[in-house]
Write a structure and sequence with these properties.
Strand content: 25-35%
CATH class: Alpha Beta
Number of domains: 1
Oligomer: single chain
Order of helices and strands: EHEEEHEHEHEEEEHE
CATH architecture: 3-Layer(aba) Sandwich
Shape: globular
Distance between the termini: 23 Å
Number of strands: 11
Number of helices: 5
CATH topology: Stationary-phase Survival Protein Sure Homolog, Chain: A
CATH superfamily: Survival protein SurE-like phosphatase/nucleotidase
């Protein structure tokens, strides 16, 4: 199988390096944004050229969005390398992408774009406690387990897996993997004002966590897996 690896934090981010390490024994093609595109949603570039930088024979930095990366990977890079993409893997995102975040997330958009073309995908995000250091080795180990499970369970046609890892802290155990439904509760929307300038200051950790949703599962210390449709 051939895996297209991408993200929205940029090709030099530690999360995509961890994902590439997990897949080092698989056939992969990396096409990731040259610059961070967090929160860009499913934006695509259609009115201007997209510059491509070859990092090596199978790694490319794309001056575009995550969805652009998936498109270029599928329709240009893979044929150039005489291969076809079997899975799109996006992440590991530095920050959660739960519930309604899926509409805002470039990480999720990258796998959604693949699903549009009938290619299954997995988006992986690591929930953070901002200001506290993240143990990427533990995140990588948990993500390895996630891929071992989900690659054996392709999502329904036109769907994809969205995965959120809980905050690891100092724990050594492997969290339970829980298939659940996405939260439909809105994010906190509050702003501070200085004259005519408004700054968003909603707290991610204060969002509603209805029982049985990905937010409740992830905040509760388990790996939340939701199947999202296009």
């Amino acid at each position: 199988m051939v895996f297209l690896i991408t993200n929205d934090d940029g090709i030099d981010a530690p999360g995509i390096a961890a994902l590439e390490k997990i897949c080092k024994d698989r056939e992969t093609l990396t096409a990731a944004p040259r610059h961070p595109h967090s929160g860009c949603g499913h934006q695509t570039t259609t009115a201007s050229p997209i510059l491509l930088e070859a990092r090596d024979a199978s790694r490319y930095a794309v001056h575009g969005t995550p969805a652009d990366c998936t498109r270029l990977g599928m329709v240009h890079l893979a044929p150039t390398l005489s291969c076809e993409i079997d899975w799109v893997l996006s992440g590991i995102n530095e920050g959660g992408n739960m519930g309604l975040d899926s509409y805002l997330s470039g990480t999720v958009a990258a796998v959604r774009e693949g699903a549009f073309q009938g290619i299954p995908g997995i988006a992986i995000s690591q929930y953070l406690h901002w200001g506290e250091p993240l143990n990427w080795e533990r995140t990588q180990a948990w993500s390895t387990h996630v891929l071992d499970v989900l690659l054996k369970q392709p999502p329904e046609p036109g769907s994809f897996w969205n995965v959120n890892l809980p905050w690891p802290g100092d724990r050594e155990d492997l969290p339970e993997l829980v298939f659940c439904k996405p939260s439909r509760d809105p994010l906190p929307v509050t702003y501070s004002q200085a004259g005519n300038a408004f700054t968003y200051n909603g707290s991610y950790s204060d969002r509603p966590a209805a029982p049985g949703t990905d937010v409740a599962v992830c905040f509760g210390g388990s790996i939340a897996v939701t199947q999202l449709s296009t």
